[in-house]
Write a structure and sequence with these properties.
It is a single chain. A 9-stranded mixed sheet has the order 1-2-3-4-5-6-9-8-7. The chain has 7 helices and 9 strands. By secondary structure, the protein is an alpha+beta fold. The longest helix has 14 residues, at about 25-40. Strand 3 and strand 4 form a beta hairpin.
Length: about 260
């Protein structure tokens, strides 16, 4: 298999590529950091200085490598380009499961340029993982995100969605899935709500990442209105934690679904 896997499907004009950890360059990281800084979101009201409410959440290439691709040998970068310009990326890594076979695969960053959203780009980037040898020993995939669309993209990986999801699997594996995490902020984040047995509690972790929730709350309301949401409410400083089991035949699925 080549070092970089590319695909022009399913969206005409867009090129998707998977770059294995050792082949991720400083230029790749700089491009990802710029895309994140320009399109992720802004800090919430009341955020502690020196951060400023309403200012953009910024990311540097060095911080991206440290927080999202700490174990570069076990990581991959999936990118989407339109006419040669990056319009989306997914940083993904993995670590051994505790008391179970295989690896936990984790989406550490998932971002799509604002003008290219609602085109299934995030979903397609994650689907590209199925073509990779990296994916062969992954038995659980996870994400921590405040954005419902990101959670939905992960659920789509196994043909599911944010309504018909195995919540028991999430609660039973939430703690153990993070035992060997190589992402420090995630490993240190306490699980809350449903993970503690709180009736009606959200499936979330307190990451102390106080990004403004105006946009994700708007998206969340559409999911709720359409009865497509099972993970509870979005709390300040929290991110939803979603886990899905990876079926043994997942690699054989059509990545363009």
């Amino acid at each position: 298999m080549s070092e970089t896997t590319t695909s022009g499907q399913p969206t005409d004009g867009l090129i998707f590529e998977v770059i294995r950890g050792p082949d991720i360059t400083d230029e790749h990281l700089k491009a990802c950091a710029t895309l994140f800084s320009n399109h992720y979101g802004v800090w919430a009201p009341g955020v502690a200085p020196p951060l400023k409410p309403g200012s953009r959440v910024r990311m540097t290439a060095a911080r991206l490598r440290k927080e999202c691709l700490a174990d570069i040998e076990k990581s991959v970068l999936v990118r989407c380009c339109d006419l040669g310009e990056p319009v989306g990326h997914a940083c993904v890594t993995k670590w051994p499961r505790a008391n179970a076979e295989g690896y936990v695969g984790w989406v550490t960053q998932l971002i799509v340029e604002a003008g290219h959203r609602r085109r299934r780009i995030a979903t397609t980037m994650l689907q590209m993982l199925k073509q990779e040898s990296w994916f062969e020993d992954v038995t659980v995939m996870g994400i921590a995100s405040s954005h419902p669309a990101a959670c939905n993209s992960l659920c789509n990986l196994s043909g599911g969605n944010t309504r018909d999801v195995d919540l028991n699997f999430i609660t039973e594996n939430g703690v153990s899935a993070l035992v060997h995490s190589n992402i420090k902020y995630l490993k240190d984040a306490p699980l809350r709500g449903a993970f503690l047995g709180t009736p009606g509690g959200s499936y979330s972790a307190f990451t102390a990442f106080f990004v403004d929730h105006a946009e994700p709350l708007g998206i969340l309301q559409t999911y709720l209105d359409n009865k497509r949401w099972a993970f509870g409410e979005l709390l300040d400083g929290h991110e939803f934690v979603v886990l899905i089991p990876v079926p043994k035949n997942a690699k054989d699925d059509d990545v363009t679904k």
